[in-house]
Amino acid sequence: MAHSAEIDSKEAWDGGVSPFKLSYGKMFMWFFLVSDALTFGGLLISYGFIRHKYAEVWPKAENVFTHFPFIEQHVPLAYVGLMTFILIMSSVTMVLAVEAGQRMDRKGVTTWMFWTIIGGAAFVGSQAWEWYHFIVGTDHGALRNVWDAASGSYVKQVFHGANMVTNEYGVPQFANYFFFITGFHGTHVFSGVVLNFIIFLNVLKGTYQKRGHYEMVEKVGLYWHFVDLVWVFVFTFFYLL
Amino acid sequence: MSDFHDNYPQYELEALHDEAYGKKARRTLWNVFWIMLGITIFELIIGSMAPGHGWSGTLWLKTLFIVLTLAKAAAIVIWFMHLGHEVKFFKYIILIPYIIFMFYTIFVILTEGTYSGTSAKATKVDPIFVEQQKALKHGHHSSGVPQTNQAEPAQNQEHH
Q1: Is some CB atom of chain A closer than 8 A to the CB atom of B8?
Q2: In this predicted complex, what is the ipTM?
Q3: DSSP 8-state class, residue A236
Q4: Do B40 and A85 touch (CB under 8 A)?
């Protein structure tokens, strides 16, 4: 444990030690997250560009995401607020699991990991619900020029919901970016829940208690916080601005 | 080489700490959580109040939202992901390449992307979208029934 104090900076790069005082597993999780963050950054920047290009016809989020379970009225932003709360909450339970692991508190890790998995599953479910309402659309719909294969021309008709070509909310790019970015993020959340579950099973089996440290919990924790980090940006750029 | 790993420091064990330290760490984490929740609730209140006000969609409001977002992101990275606890050089290794690439991508899209913004090459938008947004601005959610059902020459928005 006292190794770090003995390292001479001149010899730190000669091998046998990590100049970053990190295990390779944690370091490469960070490197992976940086590359993943570049992907999300590229997606969000291109989203910003297209949105700016269609600024005058870009739909406003408060006119699109107005549903809330069991409530008939329009409540803009409320549902996404709930989703954000669920994800921040699960991020905090994850970091508490990491903290418990650093005290070798197996019971604490079990409890907090369990709540993290529940939170993650609740978020994925909420996103499915959001997608469902986005795809099905509203009762009133909107007028669209829809391609009619039979006549080989565009026909003006009321269109409900959204797909990759047409949507009732506005320009097609709006639905394209919504599906792609929230879908890509949702896939990350889903894989995060799966990873958390695998680590949770190992915690239950006592694998890490035997190993003497809970670093695996820290590694999936890093991934899980990254998912929360991305959502913070998606939330701002899709729903608030 | 067989004993290569024998004197390899176990950094995993350096992270271990006692109950007293844990108590302090937990207090910090909960404080970060309450601050983040506060920021999010503030954003939601401002965001749902904005429609219909003069300051809705202004540059100031957008800047405020982006600054608050960056603050939340920093809180997650520093305290939840424990980057604040890593050695200085590792922080730079993670943050600097990312920040450079993000600024570079924004720079590229702002300079190379301008071709589509000039009036000569401006992308044609189907007027149906303009009408819809105008109607929504006046509070009409329903777009009504189509008056005519015959095929009209459609102005498509994405056919280069």
Answers
A1: yes
A2: 0.86
A3: I
A4: yes
